[in-house]
């Protein structure tokens, strides 16, 4: 049994973290900001008293999950890592060469006992569950990703905003009342997730590029991404257009490979209208993959497919939980 701190326990990722810890033997300490201190958090059969975050409060914990902001993690992560193993959900350390960025089923074997570990971006983690096994078998040559990202990717207040705007929706107007997105999200599609970089890609798009290269250890891999926010509540979807170095075998043997890959569920029966969707992948541990077809441009060297995965699970809390299992094994 370990003692575990969940910092940011009232947020979208923190709550999902607590749900995963609920049926374990671990002792859990819940921390958030002063705003939430001393409140009671009820989840399933458990009640937690929320503590205000402090370094001292985390110091006797074996594992500290940071589920706050990048700024917060940059400030406290290295200090906390002197006492505990810190698993950070923000992007603060993902691109530091000396800090491991782990998706356990894909690159868990590269872990060397470091006490500060980065959890990947949600869209990267979901894509990697499928890209990992395909790369191992056929060698990735290039990749084009388009995402359809749920409101909860922007945190709990963003989910509440989408629900409220949807309830009140009457017609499109010119007023932008959004606090959590660049524009109103209800009945809209927004081709901006995070801020724009100098190269006109968004930070979210570049996170996918940097993280997929790092996890697959392919620093030169050609990747281009477009990240789009859509008015779903939970679970991101992504279209992947992949060119491989090797000629691909039959689609059925690719489905078999993916079926046998950990954390992947193949849902690919288009004639029966069965394919991955947020409605079916929400709350699921596995990432759904389907719509497999040879790409019309790259022929048998190219594959188009569609994935959908619960980004609060695979893209955040579940991945972090699996990192904890790797560390404590
Ligand atoms: N949402 C996703 O799908 C997702 C996926 C992967 C990674 N991430 C990353 O995970 C992190 C958390 O995201 P989220 O979506 O869960 O955000 P969120 O729903 O907005 O929750 C933020 C949490 O941080 C806490 N917090 C804020 N300031 C704090 C402080 N000074 N001290 C202690 N706690 C503080 C908040 O506590 P109070 O309630 O007390 O304010 C709340 O518990 C972010 O870095 C995000 O980029 C999110």
Write down how many β-strands occur, each being a DSSP E stretch of 2 or more residues. 14
Major sheet: arrangement of strands: 5-2-1-6-7-8
CATH topology of the largest domain: Dihydrodipicolinate Reductase, domain 2
End-to-end distance, in Å? 11 Å
The CATH superfamily label of the largest domain reads Dihydrodipicolinate Reductase, domain 2
CATH architecture of the largest domain: 2-Layer Sandwich
Q: What summary fits the major beta sheet?
A: 6 strands, parallel
Name of the top-level CATH class of the largest domain? Alpha Beta
- Bound molecule types: NADP nicotinamide-adenine-dinucleotide phosphate
Oligomerization? single chain
User: Low-confidence spans: pLDDT under 50, at least 5 residues?
Assistant: none
**Total number of helices:** 10
- Helix/strand structural class: alpha/beta
Shape: globular
What layout of secondary structure does this protein have?
Elements: E1 3-7, H1 12-21, E2 27-32, E3 40-43, E4 46-49, E5 51-52, H2 55-58, E6 63-66, H3 70-80, E7 85-88, H4 104-107, E8 116-118, H5 122-138, E9 140-149, H6 156-168, H7 203-216, E10 222-229, E11 236-244, H8 251-259, E12 264-266, H9 278-281, E13 287-295, E14 299-309, H10 313-328
Parallel strand pairs: 1-2, 1-6, 2-5, 6-7, 7-8, 9-10, 12-13
Antiparallel strand pairs: 3-4, 9-11, 11-14, 13-14
NADP nicotinamide-adenine-dinucleotide phosphate binds near residues 14, 36, 72 and 155.
């Amino acid at each position: 049994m370990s003692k575990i701190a969940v910092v940011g326990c009232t947020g979208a990722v923190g709550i999902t973290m607590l749900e995963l810890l609920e049926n374990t033997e671990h002792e859990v300490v819940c921390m958030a900001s002063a705003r939430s201190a001393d409140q009671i958090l009820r989840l399933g059969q458990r009640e937690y008293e929320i503590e205000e975050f402090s370094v001292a409060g985390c110091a006797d914990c074996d594992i500290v999950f940071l589920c706050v902001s990048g700024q917060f993690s940059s400030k406290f992560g290295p200090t906390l890592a002197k006492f505990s193993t810190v698993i950070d959900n923000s992007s603060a350390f993902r691109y530091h060469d000396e800090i491991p960025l782990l998706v356990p089923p894909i690159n868990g074997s590269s872990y060397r006992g470091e006490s500060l570990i980065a959890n990947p971006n949600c869209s990267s983690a979901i894509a990697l569950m499928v890209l990992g096994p395909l790369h191992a078998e056929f060698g990735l040559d290039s990749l084009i990703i388009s995402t359809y990202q749920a409101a909860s990717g922007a945190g709990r207040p963003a989910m509440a905003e989408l629900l409220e705007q949807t309830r009140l929706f009457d017609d499109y107007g010119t007023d932008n009342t959004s606090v959590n997105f660049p524009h109103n999200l209800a009945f809209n599609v927004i081709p901006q997730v995070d801020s724009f970089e100098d190269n006109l890609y968004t930070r979210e798009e570049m996170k996918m590029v940097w993280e997929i290269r790092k996890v697959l250890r392919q620093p030169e891999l050609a990747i281009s991404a477009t990240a789009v926010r859509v008015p779903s509540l939970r679970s991101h979807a992504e279209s992947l257009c992949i060119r491989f170095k090797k000629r691909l075998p039959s689609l059925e043997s690719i489905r078999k490979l993916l079926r046998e890959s950990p954390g992947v569920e193949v849902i690919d029966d288009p004639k029966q209208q069965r394919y991955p969707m947020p409605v079916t992948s929400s709350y699921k541990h596995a990432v759904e993959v389907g719509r497999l077809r040879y790409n019309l441009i790259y022929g048998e060297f190219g594959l188009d497919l569609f994935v959908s995965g619960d980004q609060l699970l695979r893209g955040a809390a579940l991945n972090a939980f699996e990192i904890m299992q790797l560390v404590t094994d």
